Amino acid sequence: MKKYFVILALALGFFGAAAQAASTLDIKEAWYGMKGSSECHRFKSRLLLCNDDASCKFSCDGTSACGDPAPGKEKVCNIVYTCSGKPDARVEKSFPDSKTPQELSCE
Is residue 7 part of a domain? Predict the structure, then answer.
């Protein structure tokens, strides 16, 4: 009987550690364009699909949600997110305008 309790305790510890290790994304803010002048906040709707995933690939361009909010100007994607394991630690990243896939990660 003792052996079964040890196996059960080990299994519960293993699954508990696995659940704690799986931190997921929570997108707080996201925009595409030029800060302070031509920001497109509809870009955030694309990134909300990343919520609850450990990582997410996306391209930083306005073709599907924003068009070109600042023709002829250099644009960026700015994203603020947290990870479920550290909800008070906000991460802010900027990516250059490009169709090359970028990645957000909580891993």
Answer: no
